[in-house]
Structure formats: structure tokens, C-alpha cells
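Side project, low priority. Logging it here so it doesn't get lost.
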Amino acid sequence: MHGDLQKNALRPGMILLAVLVLACACIPASAGSWHRLGKFFSLNDFSDAADDMPFSLHVLEVGKADSLLLECGGEAMLVDGGTADRGEEVIRYLRRRGWDSLRYVVNTHPDADHIGGLAEVLKDFSVGTYLCPRLPDSLLPDTEEFRAVKNALAQKEMEPVYAADGQSFSLGKASVTIYQPEVEAKSLNNASLILYVAYKNTFFLLMGDAELEEEEALLAQNRTLKADVLKVGHHGSETSTGKALLNAVTPRFAAISVANDRNNLPRVKVLRRLQAAGTEVCRTDVSGTLLFLSDGKEVRLLTER
């Protein structure tokens, strides 16, 4: 009797295992199919909440570096790829989200903590368009990370598209506008592409590593800057996120991609500016990956931990 009961108790688990094995054998090994299979078996991930929302912004935890994933209408855009040693983590996250291809890959500027992981992404994913800033020869970096991306593009026979100030394009039903005002004292940080993303009545401003000089040039253009979410420039350095910018943006949320290191970021002065602006500060070093979800009317925040 005891043996029969034990066998009967095991049968549901064995049946489930058999179904899983059969599904694995029958479903093509793509990121999308594995994502759907995981959901079918309730192998939930915190980011699955984005599946039920029309627009999402994922600020990935990649240390003191930037990598952002935007999803809308069955299309995905990756903005920066973290450092080279975090490229595989970025790829794993994209696979977790079920992506096999990316409509756009954007490099805001070729500092190692923004461009480093993009070579691996370009190798592993089908990419529709690679966008980056056009830089003067004096600013072109002679780094392994920059060369790796150039080589990855050449291997795919892709030409980079040099973004222009004011250029707009769509991601699903979201619109993306590139801001890159001219700054007299050029640096890689102040050559950052700034992205203004609108999904219906919700707005997102992604500042790259833009510093006060680029912020001032941006404000002088009288652009639309109001945003629900501000991706804080330069990881919360004092040289970014000035009061004038915050007065123009009035963000509800501020996302800071950062990690504990000798730079002691984000700086207290920046946090005080954000507090004075009534902005909720969200940090990857505290909360892991940040997930902003929009239904077109309002934005809500989920965090990985």
C-alpha cells in the first residue's frame, strides 16, 4: 500500500517532467520560445510584468555603467551595453526578455562603460540599425572596446548611422527623438546622444553622460524636456544634473545606474538637488535592475530586489 501511494505521488511530477522534455524537443531554441515556455511553467522573472504593459524601460544593473532596454509594440531598443566584462549579462537579460533581434542599438558615446558590451550584443543578435554620435577625429577613442564594435559591425556588413540633433524615429507606438546640441568645449561626455522618448502621455529623458555644458546647450534650444523618468547623466556625478535641467524636466523618478567604487557616486549634492525637486531616486546599486512600466497614462516602478 505504502509503495503504491508513493508511486501515485510521483506520477504528476513525472508527467510534468515528460511534458517539459517534449516541449523542449518540439519548440525551436529561440529566446522568444524559451521565454514563453518559462511563463507556461510559471518560471516567473520580475521583468515578466513588462509583458502585460505596452511600454517598458529597463535600467539594467551593470555596475557603474549604462545599459538600457526599451520595449514597445513588439520592438526593442538597447541603449548602451555596459563594460566589456558585463556584455554577457546584458545578453542574458535580453534572452530572458525573449528577444532574438533588436530594432535599434544606440551607443550614446564610446566611453568603455557605455560601448564595452555592445560588440558581444552585435555578434549575438540581429540588429536593424546601429546609432551613434558623429565625433571629430580628436575625440575618436583608441580603445579595445571601440575597435571591437567597429569589427563587429564590419563582420555583419553594417554601417553605423550617425545620429543628428532633432532626428526622430519610432519604436512600436513610442517616438524617440535624438538631442545632441553643440557644445563649444567638446568632450566625450558632452558629445553624448540624449534620447527623449514619448509613449502617449508618458515621457522619458535619457541623458547618457551629458554634463552641465551639454545640459545648458540643450536648455538654450528650448526643447520639450518634461519627463516622468530622468535617466540621470554621468552616474550621478556633480558635473551633471544641474538645477536648471531639473526645473525643466520636473521628473517624478530619477534612475541612477551606479555601483560602489572610488568615485563615491552618486554625489550627495546631486541627491540633494533631486530631493529638492521632489523626485524619487532609484539606484541600481540599491535596487538592482529598475523597470519602469507605462500604460500611456502613468508610469510605475518595479525593482529586481
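Brief comment: The first strand starts at residue 55 and ends at 59.
Revisit when time allows.
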